[in-house]
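Re: FE2/S2 (inorganic) cluster structure - here you go.
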Amino acid sequence: MVTLSINGQQVQGVDGSSILEVAREHGIEIPTLCYHEALEPYGGCRLCVVELKAPRGPRLVASCVYPAEEGAVVETDSEIVHRSRRMTAELLLGAAPNAKVIQALAARMGVEKPRVSLSDNNCILCGLCVRACREIVGANAISLVNRGFTKEVSPPFEIGSNACVGCTTCVFLCPTGAIKLEEVLANRSVHHWDSDFEAVACKICGDHYLAPELAVDVEKVLSEENA
Amino acid sequence: MTIVRTPEELENLKEKLVASSDPDRPRVSVCCGTGCRVLGSMDVIEAFRTELGSRGLGNEIGIVGTGCHGFCEKGPVVVLKPSGIFYQRVGVDDVAEIVSESLLNGAVIDRLIYVDPASGARVIYEEDVPFYQKQQRLVLDLNGDIDPTNIEDYIAFGGYYGLSKALHQMRPEKVVEEVTQSGLRGRGGAGFPAGLKWSLCREAKGDTKYIICNADEGDPGAYMDRSIMEGNPHRVLEGMIIGAYAIGAHEGYVYIRNEYPLAVENLRIAITQAEEYGLLGQNILGSGFDLSIHIRPGSGAFVCGEETALMASIEDRIGEPRPRPPYPAVSGLWGKPTNINNVETWANVPIVIDRGREAYSQIGTDQSTGTKIFSLVGNINNTGLVEVPMGATLSEIVYDIGGGIPAEKDCKAVQLGGPSGGCVPKEHFDVPIDYESLQELGAIMGSGGMVVCDEDTCMVELARFFMDFVQQESCGKCVPCRLGTRAMLDVLTGITRGLGQEGDIEYLEELGRQITASSLCGLGQTASNPVLSTIRHFRDEYEVHIRDGRCLAHVCKSLILYSIDAEKCTGCGRCLRKCPAEAISGAKKEPHVIDQDKCVKCGTCLELCKFDAVVVE
Ligand SMILES: Cc1cc2nc3c(=O)[nH]c(=O)nc-3n(C[C@H](O)[C@H](O)[C@H](O)COP(=O)(O)O)c2cc1C
Ligand code: FES
């Protein structure tokens, strides 16, 4: 266990936890965008910054990736933290002005209008879809390509990838609704990835739910395994 | 080829090499660094071979194709040894005459002699060239003497002595201690103490450890590391072997910019030769210590020079930085403790060990020991590579070594450290160059890029240039760097186009501070430096752009107007004929007029007019 101070309160956390994890366990709220407890932390959105006063401080660190160290002194609510989050929210609003989460976030941070308009793309490159596809689904159908302002999420070579199994985890996780799913009867299209196929229907409820490659005959698999 | 198994055998080999080379034997040293190559030095060296061959002098007179001598401005550079006669801008046509007049008769060819622009003095010998006189060449010392593709040249000058001393006379901890006490700091930008970094990696838990040489050199205009690797690759290898021994690593990587084909080739040759001589590979110098070194060509992104991105790239993953901690010393390449240093840092190591910490720390200042190589570019007479002791001043570099500013213009500032750096205005040219003093001025030592700006430089445009660079090179992973640098670029571009608004400067400052404080890696954390430092020292230039819509340096095209002074114009028609936009009209011998709607502000008329009739405002 490690003991550290967050906002003047002595708290304990399991070795290897991040500051964010320890804070949340103790009911201390820190805003996040690219963090998801089921995924590897990414450290991309920088909304979770906190002020680390010791050791080697004071400075801002991203709490989702920064380890909770013994004796650390952390402030999650100080003026410099708020200034940084406000600027981040403003930049995000300038880049994704139509995304509902970003509008709400900006409002919460007291940002009315971004000083610079950058784009109006709903994708904020939080990378949740890419990490889920890799770490949970195991499909690796999409990745982050290019750099800087031209960075985007894409299937390989921007062509619909047959690695996509149409599980829609990415659609579900996307905080801004940038990934569009369309289901017309059996036809399921994840527009963003240019993937489009007939989903197989469930034998019991009749819902179309699964990509054909995944629709294996469970009984057959089981009997083979038992043989 | 000889396998060197003991310190004595190294000593013997050196003695043999020295004895077999007559110091009085005439030799021609032709610079074959990239700068001189571009100017034709490979043809020059070929011409020497042909000329000497046809005169049957091939054995009597030696030819050495060396690495960069540093004085790229005057390339191709040729030095005759042992006399030291220095010829500049040598062409193929000069070769026959150099052989017949200078090599055979000892005469000096006047037209090839260097004339110092400052004093007008004719300089015959290399050692008297002012460009070299004020330098202290510790790392680049052998660049003009040795053939980088021949390990014996390096050994003849005492190469691999530091390694021999480390392996046979010092325990690994002692080597770390020696480097720590020497005060050597990282030359790749941040100036982190090398010995401390080594000890962290040495003490990290794990049997497998790696060392890396960062040879990705991505700063625009910087070519120090390139010239070290092209001109003396063995010094870098020797440093790495000593470091690996001290840290306990048996595998090393050189991550080298793929756009440096000559450096890659010379390094490859050097690795092969060092292995053949028993100085690399298994049982180095008979000590029982093993190390293999691999070359990994860079992936072509600026951010791949950042240490965590670089390691991701070696692992064949996307070259994106990851958060630290964990630091590479604890968890680096493939999760193993890894020590990464810059080319120039590694190249200093053999010198530290060979000469000892006392001697080394005498050079430079208390906090910044040794020398630093700078690539001196921009508005400067002597473009080239300059190695000076830490603590030298900018005025020494710009005026004494660099020969001042062309066309007798005034100097405004020097930009140090490239896209992560800042500028030092002329008022501070007497401040000693060391890590701390530069930081106080809002600049950094950086890796050694030094861009000299004359009075016609627009500091807002300079800041915009670097911001454009970093926003393109940002990996795009974190929001402040990806979007923040883009926002800064938009505002800066607006200012240079006359669209600046009240409040822009304050917004840039606030944005810059936030990007610095909250970005994931060093790229974002330093990306605002050029902007913040130009605002700090040249705020009035920003204000004039924004409030008056003027660019006093006449650089920002949207803010300047070209016109013709009717009193001075003789109607000669030169400008009218050459204007690419056909914006100038007027009858012969009548004053001409510029049509502002058509003018593209290229400046052609200004350059052409013999009567100073073109006015820029
Ligand atoms: C964006 C970025 C680019 C960098 N590029 C280089 C480079 O080209 N060469 C280099 O030696 N260090 C570069 N660095 C610094 C490295 O991350 C690292 O600090 C350095 O290699 C350590 O070596 P040193 O301690 O010997 O200086 C870069 C850092 C950043 C943030
Ligand atoms: S939640 Fe930590 S950087 Fe996004």
